Q: What sequence folds into this?
């Protein structure tokens, strides 16, 4: 009888331990589809609006690709911005979860330090383009510009844009001819510094 009682206690402890291990595996294991979020902290290297991915280089030098969607918010100085406003050199913390395919996704990105704050923006090398405004997305802080070579370029207004720049952006209408300066991110992305 005593042996049976001891065996029952051992079995109860074993089941309790296994249940605890299962919970740990559920939180951290590969079978968990993001019930617990983690944080990836590092420097923004690229924002790909077509594939909806943000490339972040962490302090350890590793590169992470993080997917985002229309609901993803960027928080900076207690204000909310669209992902399009992120720029190369911003130092961010992204709350990530894994989707069913095991890819990192995020719905909240906090800018801890902008590229301007960090001094990572090469302000001495500004590009200039001119063209016709095709579409203005005031919610995202972007507009599409058709340049003289007939390329469609997405222009992003900076987080810390001066009031004169944001005022001019708010007055933009489809069909307006504009001349701007800023930095070319790639062939179809441009970060606005100023209207000329």
A:
């Amino acid at each position: 009888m005593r042996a049976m009682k001891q065996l029952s206690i051992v079995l109860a402890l074993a089941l309790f331990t296994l249940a605890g291990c299962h919970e740990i595996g559920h939180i951290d294991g590969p079978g968990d589809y993001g019930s617990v979020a983690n944080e990836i902290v590092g420097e923004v290297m690229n924002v790909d609006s077509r594939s909806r991915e943000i490339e972040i280089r962490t302090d350890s030098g590793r590169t992470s690709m993080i997917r985002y969607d229309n609901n993803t918010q960027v928080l900076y100085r207690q204000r909310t911005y669209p992902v399009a406003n992120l720029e190369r050199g911003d130092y961010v913390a992204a709350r990530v979860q894994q989707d069913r395919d095991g890819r990192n996704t995020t719905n909240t990105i906090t800018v801890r330090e902008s590229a301007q704050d960090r001094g990572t923006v090469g302000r001495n090398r500004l590009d200039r383009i001119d063209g016709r405004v095709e579409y203005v997305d005031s919610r995202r802080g972007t507009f599409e510009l058709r340049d003289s070579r007939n390329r469609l370029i997405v222009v992003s207004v900076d987080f810390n844009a001066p009031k004169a720049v944001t005022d001019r952006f708010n007055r933009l209408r489809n069909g307006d001819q504009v001349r701007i300066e800023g930095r070319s991110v790639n062939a179809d992305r441009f970060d606005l510094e100023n209207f000329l």
User: Anything to note?
Assistant: The chain has a mean pLDDT of 78. The radius of gyration is 24 Å.
